[in-house]
## 1
Amino acid sequence: MDAHRRPLLDRTPALLTEGYAWLPNRMRDSTRSVLRTRLLGRPALAVRGPEAVRLFYDESQVHRHGAIPPPILDTLFGQGAVHTLDGAAHRTRKELFLPLLEAGRVARLTEHVTGAWDEAVRAWSERDRVVLFDEAAVVLTRGVCDWAGVPPGAVDTDTLSRDLVAMVDGFATPGPRHLRARRARARQETRTARLVEEVRAGAVAAPADSVLQRVARHRDTAHGPLDSRTAAVELLNVLRPTVAVSWFVAFAAHALHRWPAHRERLRTGDDAFATAFAHEVRRFYPFAPFLGARTVTELSWHGESVPAGGILLLDVYGQNHDEELWGDPYSFRPARFLDRPPGPDELIPQGGGDPAGGHRCPGERITVGLLQALAVRLARLDCTVPEQDLRIPLRRIPTRPRSGFAVTGVRAP
């Protein structure tokens, strides 16, 4: 039997045990950056590289509808989210999010978050020990809620922070973390839908053109206003990825601890270096292992094929550590991004392609802006890093330093 036509073993169990290394381990022996496999009972084709990124975002070849497994929708994105739409429906819904790409809005969000951070540092100075991952999540929640127009007192930011973290932390694993993620999403969708209804009824005032107001008033072309539950899903799809920057904050602290030579340059407020540092944190440290889409027709790529209704996998972690793209990819070198900005189809921790018209995360600019500003503050943070478990397990998705990166003896500026 032709080796390319032999029945493929389902590799889902290996994914659960190998984590981020699952695809890179299997693609290591391929000379064409393509691999046939089977996942969740369906034939799959795994690809990586800039050319493959363009294939992955070609809507004539692949769709998102039906591609995201229900457990991920029920935790990370929410049913009916923009991530599940294609074509005109996707473009119309994405109009909710495109203003987030504007430099002025990103700057205002950064101001809200850095203000919350500076206030938090003063409180940390009165505590024996703080865990930066946890505290960053609270800071980001407070900042993004203020920026999004969520009225003070309309939400419990501490509870919301824990729930938003739980949604991200439990999307890719069975067991208790996944159950916490489901409960967190159900709780916050109910609360946020109620808030949307109150805004629509005039019982709660939302600033004009705020994210909350835009979500409450948005109309899909075919179906009119979003139902309150879907509106809640999309508001959470602004809040949740912003709070997910806490993973990158913990990674940035980890990088500064391992390679302290970068600290001094960040302290000076060198914007170009801070941006390069943010890009390198996003490239070097693991966040999304891969992305998936559903093939519309039989798809062939570099001599391998997958039938219609199969899965196309984009190897995010593998591409961000591809020797041909980066050279010495397992060295942490922010300077690699001082020479030139990353190409849109090269650095893909939050997807590839065009964020305005495609499926690339529109919040990527927010992530970079926030991480750039918070990395400078981390470099200036006067504290002690005690002995702790700073290992980053690649079997855990999403991963982070085991300890969450604890610090002691914080001294307020």
## 2
Amino acid sequence: MSSEVIEVCAREEPPEAWDAAVFLAGPTPRTPDVASWRPGARAALREQWRGPGRLVVLDPEHRHGIHDDYTGQVDWEERCLNLADEVLFYVPRALDTMPAFTTNVEWGMWHDSGKAVFGAPPEAPKNDYLRHYAAKLDVPTATDVPGTVALALERIGRGAPRTAGEREVPLMIWRTASFQQWYAAQRGAGNTLLGARVEWRFGLHWGLHVRVHVTAEDRVKANEVVFSRPDISTVVLYRRGRSLGDTAVVLVREFRSPASTPDGFVHELPGGSGPSDPLARAVAEVAEETGLSLAPQRLRAHTDRQLNATMSAHRAHLFSAEVTEDELAVLRASGPGGVAADGERTYVEIATYAEIARDRLVDWSMLGMIAQVLTDSEDC
């Protein structure tokens, strides 16, 4: 695929497909005798773009200098800001000719979006507040147009081909394994993504308000948000008893902010997410949260499923291992575990399956995983 840069000016319709899109945010000159910074930005983007596909530049200045519809202009900018993979802020503020009042508002809306870069000449006045938040939120910064363009393109990389509704999923979410897993499932079912809007993002966690054409019902579903995070590995450590109810299960107690339990803690299975494969992550989480070191071959893989399919797209990869009486004794005597640097502190608890079910010790997802493992173990 050949490299291409397409410039879309105010009120013009963006193309139906691209590999990356950049919105040029910043002040527009109030009079024709003041030169705009945007032609230089467009030239720098054409010069620096090395992707194999199509880069779209979304420029809120009119191609012929016509400003005839304020509401239409605002609507176009809002739409294109949401479409952009990167919002390139360049603020050569001049209080008499380019005061950048609207830019201040846009910066306030997008500075923590995860897709903003910031540039401004050192001598431009009244930018200290903007620079403060750029530094606080680790927004990449530069002091000239080519440098700011380079920052945006560095994060874009080679981009990713998207068409129609896919364009509304920015690269920072499109590239996550959790989004691709969810989207592959939707496409496999024959459904079409008609549109999306980022409602929330925190690291690799995200929430998308999506519009999906449900092919099996020939209708559009547009009133839900898909949340997701990296998949987790979860481990059921158990010691078989005389009956299913007598089987001992290892839990960890940990303070988690969303918990609405009587003690404010969650009581759950050892587990978590990370960059390693699910089995390696399972072994690591058991060691971190319980202090028990297990050889990978001791873990039995079960299946992976969503934990809350009406809300979150991420999945739990389920593993189990039967522990010995000696290992149970070590676990009962263990001290706090977890990774302190991540704000994690865990305590081992051991309960029978009957106690877990009767005393409501775990949530429904944990109870289901425990039941799956103990049912599977009965068949062995």
